[in-house]
Design goal:
It is a single chain. The chain has 311 residues and is mainly alpha-helical. Helix 4 crosses helix 5 and helix 12 packs across helix 13. It has three domains: 88 residues, no CATH class; 92 residues, no CATH class; 111 residues, no CATH class. The protein is 63% helix and 0% strand. The protein starts with 9 loop residues before the first helix and ends in a 7-residue tail after the last helix.
Length: 311
């Protein structure tokens, strides 16, 4: 079903008008005419609807669903940045990340330190390079990253994930690993539904407890497959073992994580649907941020085997 077949209802149009006036009151320095607001809203609704259309078994997107999940002020800041408004960029630079309440710029710098350990020059330039990447398309016929934000999640955490994925993609170019498709770079793994957000802290405790019990050899496989995005074949060649061994160990790790973390959440009172999807969505943050999965720690594990990440 196309977005053209799903026009807004009278109630939806009233909500759109209310959203416009809400944004104008909340962000008076970000100037959006009603015409520009409506045009961008239709464009981002189509992005949202296209993603829903690609999800097997998903209910077709409606304006009601889209407006229910719209982070209106974050969306407006993004649109203002796309339109080149300096005040919108100032709002973005001053944005704070929800879980740590630090400035977005500081959160990106901290992520750069994890991505480029012992490379202070790259840590310094990583964030500056990222800003231009947001508004300039990588190639003809593609959209700039900011133009792909559909407003269905908070902007600051989304940008942090985009920053991480973009730099991981660049790092893979130096290891011979195939880069992510363009959509994967700018459209990261969907956030868990809002009703599941309260489970984030419980998940982190359970996931880090599970990760602390993983053996060094298992942790190394996790790191090579997740942080360095290496294929099973590349990992098997690096470690000098059969590819089937890596495949079996990867599947075993996945099953162990689902069992251990899932059971802990159930014991804590989990009542939501699709626990497996929630665990697999959330675990990426832990695997990226936990000190046991840092580039330095993985490097030491490899060095103990007389190995190193291929240059």
């Amino acid at each position: 079903m196309t977005t053209e077949a799903l026009p807004p209802t009278e109630r939806d149009r009233a909500r759109i008008a209310l959203a416009y006036h809400f944004v104008r009151v909340q962000l008076p320095s970000v100037l959006l005419t009603r015409e520009a607001f409506d045009a961008h809203l239709l464009r981002t609704f189509r992005i949202f609807a296209a993603k829903i259309d690609k999800t097997l078994g998903a209910t077709p997107a409606t304006w009601t669903t889209y407006l229910d999940g719209l982070y209106a002020t974050d969306w407006a800041v993004c649109i203002g940045c796309l339109d080149g408004q300096e005040t919108a960029w100032e709002q973005l630079f001053a944005a704070r990340t929800g879980r740590s309440d630090c400035l977005l710029v500081d959160a990106l710098r901290a992520r750069a330190v994890r991505l480029y350990p012992r490379n202070e020059e790259k840590q310094e330039t990583a964030v500056d390079e990222f800003w231009s990447h947001l508004i300039v398309a990588d190639s003809e016929g593609t959209l700039p990253v900011m133009a792909r934000f559909d407003g269905q999640r908070p902007l600051a955490p989304w940008l942090i994930r985009v920053f991480q994925n973009w730099h991981l993609s660049k790092l893979r170019q130096y290891t011979g690993i195939q880069t992510l498709p363009d959509d994967d770079i700018a459209m990261p793994i969907p956030s868990a539904p809002k009703e599941e957000a309260r489970w984030h802290d419980a998940f982190n405790v359970a996931a880090r407890d599970w990760l602390s019990q993983v053996s060094d050899s298992e942790r190394l496989i996790l790191g090579l497959r997740w942080r360095y995005k290496m294929s099973q074949r590349d990992v098997s060649h690096l470690l000098g073992v059969h590819e089937g061994t890596i495949s079996r160990q990867t599947d075993k790790l996945r099953d162990k994580a689902l069992e251990a973390i899932g059971q802990k959440l159930i014991d804590d009172g989990w009542t939501g649907d699709d626990l497996e999807r929630f665990v697999l969505t959330e675990i990426g943050g832990v695997l990226t941020d936990d000190p046991l999965m840092s580039a330095d720690h993985l490097g030491r594990l490899l060095a103990a085997k007389g190995k190193s990440i291929p240059a």
